[in-house]
Amino acid sequence: MDIFIPYLFFLLLLPFSLYLILFFHKDDSDDASNLPPGSKGWPILGENVDLGLLGLSKFVRDRMEKYSHDVFQTSLLGEKVMIFCGAQGNKIIFTSDVAPWLPLSLQKVLLPDALAMFRNFQYDTLKPEALRQYIPVMDEMARGQLAGGGWRPNSVVKAQPLINKYTFELSCRLFLNLVDPERLRKLSDPFAKMRNGLLSLPIDLPGTAFHRAIKAGNMVRGEMLSIVGARRKEMNMMVEEIKGDEGRDLLSKMLLLTDEDGKPVSDKKIANCFVSLLLASYDSTAAALTSVVYFLAQLPHVYELVLKEQMAIAKSKAPGELLTWQDVENMNYSWNVARETLRLVPPSPGTFREATTDITFAGYTIPTGMKALWTPHSSHSNPDYFPEPDKFDPSRFDGTGPPPYTFVPFGGGPRMCPGRVYAKLAILVLMHNLVTSFRLERAIPHEKMVLQVAPLPTHGLQLYLKPHYPNSSPASH
């Protein structure tokens, strides 16, 4: 998934960015005669300061108006960067010869071989036909979380950390079959430190966030290696059952893989891969869910329509019957609400790429090796594609929906995020359980959503939960 790249944006805001810029600074003597218009900003500092002050959405819109609605150049992280805009710019990035570009900090904390294995393996495991089996498990976990995971009826709760906890534990359950609270704690505590350190300046000195991230990353990989090793021993004792069932979960399936020489993939590589997978499945999904709940609590008329749809599904089920793929397929308005949320508040600010061959676009030439950036903000807030772009309007997605390459929270074309179906299922299943259990009211009416690496409510999204069924637990409806 391309959720790793958004961490770069925090680096732009760090007060020590001068060090990073000097470290990565390259000679700008290349021929700029046919490059897109733009500005390199301040000497050495580039346009990092402007980006930090304006925020990505306004930064992109301002420069589109000033330079070009197709592509413009800027200077970020000591690199000359071409920012592609609009539907055609998105299409170029999603269909041209470009490669992912990762900073050294991510490579060192997450390990390149883990990222490569993760990309190679993720597609089959995240296809819709493979994910269908997860829906009842997602529903069961959502019910359990609402009944005993801190969602207390008639109380004020901070929804964001509860959503984060649910999303992390959901990934561990589905991919690792990990449910033991103590093992979850051993994994989640250093995982949070590792994740936070990805946002820091890549200086590996004691006391720095980056140093703590590397240390925490080693702890996460160590705990994951222990989980993988225990599962392999368990599988070795159940050879016949495993052959017939192809494993009980994603971890079991990965343990059946062999390399090019026909040998089992090492436990270390699998453990490293799962660290990347947990980060990928957790980060953008948690951000999207938080934003969806934010708007449900803000817009009562939207909430009522979602409630009507979800109650119809709930009433069609027998007592205790779990959700199915068909139930999720019937959540059309709810998914339009989620998509409109992703349009207004993309869970990812975009991804950096590197041109692997010369690219011609809008009369300009992007040379091989040049860094490029696409961001959903260039099309999601464009009134040519979405009239009254600041208005929350789920009906935009009725019928065939927006034109191709205009709505791109999950990328597009051949580079569509393979985790998009997983994210959709996780969002809709929790939406179903939340709105059929509670009425949501903002405890802080004017709480804002700020865009950092991912959307972040300023006070943790404090909500007052009013149960529909005062005399029963949320999961018993």
Sum this structure up briefly:
This protein has 477 residues and is an alpha+beta fold. The protein has helices at residues 8-12, 17-24, 48-54, 56-66, 86-95, 104-110, 112-125, 128-131, 135-148, 159-176, 181-197, 209-236, 239-245, 250-254, 267-298, 300-315, 325-329, 332-344, 377-380, 420-435, and strands at 71-76, 79-84, 98-100, 156-158, 351-355, 359-361, 364-366, 371-374, 438-442, 449-451, 455-457, 462-467.
Would you spell out the secondary-structure blueprint of this structure?
Blueprint: H1 8-12, H2 17-24, H3 48-54, H4 56-66, E1 71-76, E2 79-84, H5 86-95, E3 98-100, H6 104-110, H7 112-125, H8 128-131, H9 135-148, E4 156-158, H10 159-176, H11 181-197, H12 209-236, H13 239-245, H14 250-254, H15 267-298, H16 300-315, H17 325-329, H18 332-344, E5 351-355, E6 359-361, E7 364-366, E8 371-374, H19 377-380, H20 420-435, E9 438-442, E10 449-451, E11 455-457, E12 462-467
Parallel strand pairs: 2-8
Antiparallel strand pairs: 1-2, 3-5, 4-12, 5-8, 6-7, 9-12, 10-11
Helix pairs in contact: 3-4, 6-12, 7-15, 9-20, 10-15, 11-12, 12-15, 15-18, 15-20, 16-18, 16-20
Q: How can the largest sheet be summarized?
A: 5 strands, mixed
Spatially, the strands of the biggest sheet line up as 1-2-8-5-3
User: Stretches where pLDDT falls below 50 for ≥5 residues?
Assistant: 1-30
Structural class estimated from helices and strands? alpha+beta
Approximate strand percentage: 5-15%
Q: Look at the structure and give the mean pLDDT.
A: 82
What is the count of DSSP helices, taking H or I runs of 4+ residues? 20
What is the general shape?
globular
Q: What is the CA-atom radius of gyration, in angstroms? A: 23 Å
Span between termini: 36 Å
The number of distinct β-strands equals 12
Classify the helix fraction into a percent range. 40-55%
